[in-house]
Amino acid sequence: MRHTVGLAQGRAADLALDSRHSARPTLWDDHDLIQCAPLGTPPGRCAAPPHRGGRDTAPSHTAQASNASKLSRYRQLTPKSSTKHPRGARPRSAPSARGKSRASALKARSSKHSESPERAPSAPASAPTRAGISQVEWVQIDAETAGQRIDNFLLAHLKGVPRSLVYRLLRRGEVRVNKGRARPSQRIEEGDQVRLPPLRRAEQGASITPSARLQDRLAEALLYEDDLVLVLNKPAGLAVHGGSGINLGVIESLRAMRPGAELELVHRLDRDTSGCLLISKRRSALRRLHAQLREGEVDKRYLALLCGALPQAEIEVAAALSTNRVRGGERVVRVDPHAGKPSRTRFRVRQRLGALTLVEAELETGRTHQIRVHAAYLGAAVAGDPKYGDPATNARLQTLGLKRLFLHAAALSFRPREDQPPVHVTAPLPAALEAVLKRLEETSWT
């Protein structure tokens, strides 16, 4: 019987201990398991199903490097107003060619600044005028680009620009759609005119080359591929995209490995979460899958080890979530019944390990850190969670070999085409997490 937990019930600190043990069933039948050959093989060719376990070579540490120096290279350029100098104040020598170039560039930017969408060019502006500084750019949205969120469009269009800077430009109102300020969640339509401010992109056009080891890891991680999408078994510790002190993520690495391909993230996984990551290869597929996500038609299942004993076999948590930033810019998600967005997670018990519980988590919504926050709200945080978990419990689990967050995107079901049956893909639990479960089965955790 399903038990629903709402805001009024608070934290389930009094959850009774159920010492019954049950075997771990598979998420789907074996015939649903799909895995494909390494990157570069013809699309649609699948290899044998992966063995339970698999390698887990991802680093366990969490990088917190500052991105101040990187952002300084991408700071926005504001056109300077010209100032009248008194006679005799200027040098007598003629201005250099470099000076003329700089003056003309500033003049061009000033004229672009006042340009209206009606006079906007239909094609992107020319290359940066000097030292990586771009002009004001007008982009007309075509049918292939229409339908996506403006923030996702900017992240794809402004390649090499940090994610944090993209959202800063949106917050400041410096990105305009048809002369109006653009919200990150706003969806662009065919024919819209998007204004991009001048940007300093010192590394624009610089080649991004993932290491041979990273390329090998991504090639081995391919679970499924056809002509529209691919699914990777993302290793823990690898970010899905660059930014915030991370130079290279999964999507940047794949684009470097497949130059010219229109690869885009369909959804995201936290850096410390492993498992199924869906990536589109065509804009039409991206729009279709985003629509499926909004309608709840993409089935995503996770395996998580919770630091608590759940009394019911199935619990549904309905608690609104809001995202906040604390000192230092760290992102923290909290249960917020007033300003939060509706969020719903269903937990099903898969195995009881003393005071710990292995669960399958099914998302009905896709909020940031949703599983982790809802689990902590139940009083049973995800094992190894440095942000929402208990440090003392995490330290004890480290003695059993748990060096990372015990959260794995184990299964994914989606429909690449409307006229085709759904595709079911599963990712084997990493060997390091399997080893932790085995040690817990041999001990009595209290």
Structural notes for this entry:
This protein is of the alpha+beta class. The chain folds into two domains: 2-45 and 208-442, Pseudouridine synthase; 136-197, RNA-binding S4 domain (Structural Genomics Hypothetical 15.5 Kd Protein In mrcA-pckA Intergenic Region, Chain A, Roll), CATH 3.10.290.10. The protein is built from ten helices and 19 strands. It has helices spanning 68-73, 97-113, 150-157, 163-171, 212-220, 250-257, 283-294, 370-377, 391-398, 431-442, and strands at 2-5, 35-36, 46-47, 137-140, 176-177, 180-181, 193-196, 222-225, 229-234, 264-265, 274-280, 299-306, 314-318, 321-325, 331-335, 344-353, 356-363, 407-414, 423-426. Strands 1, 8, 9, 10, 11, 12, 13, 16, 17, 18 and 19 form an eleven-stranded mixed beta sheet that branches. Strands 4-7-5-6 form a four-stranded antiparallel beta sheet, with no helix packed on it. Strands 2-3 form a two-stranded antiparallel ribbon. The longest helix has 17 residues, at 97-113.
Overview in brief:
This protein has 446 residues and is of the alpha+beta class. The chain has ten helices and 19 strands.
User: How large a portion of the residues is in β-strands, by DSSP E?
Assistant: 15-25%
- Report the CATH topology name of the largest domain: Pseudouridine synthase
Name given to the CATH architecture of the largest domain? 2-Layer Sandwich
Taken from the alpha-carbon principal axes, the silhouette is: globular
Under CATH at level 1, the class of the largest domain stands as: Alpha Beta
Instruction: Supply the number of structural domains.
Output: 2
What's the total count of β strands? 19
Low-confidence stretches: 8-25, 29-38, 40-131, 202-206
Question: Helix count?
Answer: 10
Structural class: alpha+beta
Helix-strand string: EEEHHEHHEEEHEEHEEHEEEEEEHHEEH
The value of Rg in angstroms is: 25 Å
* Percent range of helical residues: 10-25%
CATH superfamily of the largest domain: Pseudouridine synthase
Mean pLDDT: 76
Largest sheet: 11 strands, mixed
Kindly, what is the distance between the CA atoms of the first and last residues, rounded to a whole number of angstroms? Answer: 26 Å
Enzyme class: isomerase
InterPro entries: PsdUridine_synth_cat_dom_sf, PsdUridine_synth_RluA-like_CS, PsdUridine_synth_RluC/D, PsdUridine_synth_RsuA/RluA, RluA_PseudoU_synthase, S4_RNA-bd, S4_RNA-bd_sf
Protein name: Ribosomal large subunit pseudouridine synthase C
Keywords: Isomerase, RNA-binding, rRNA processing
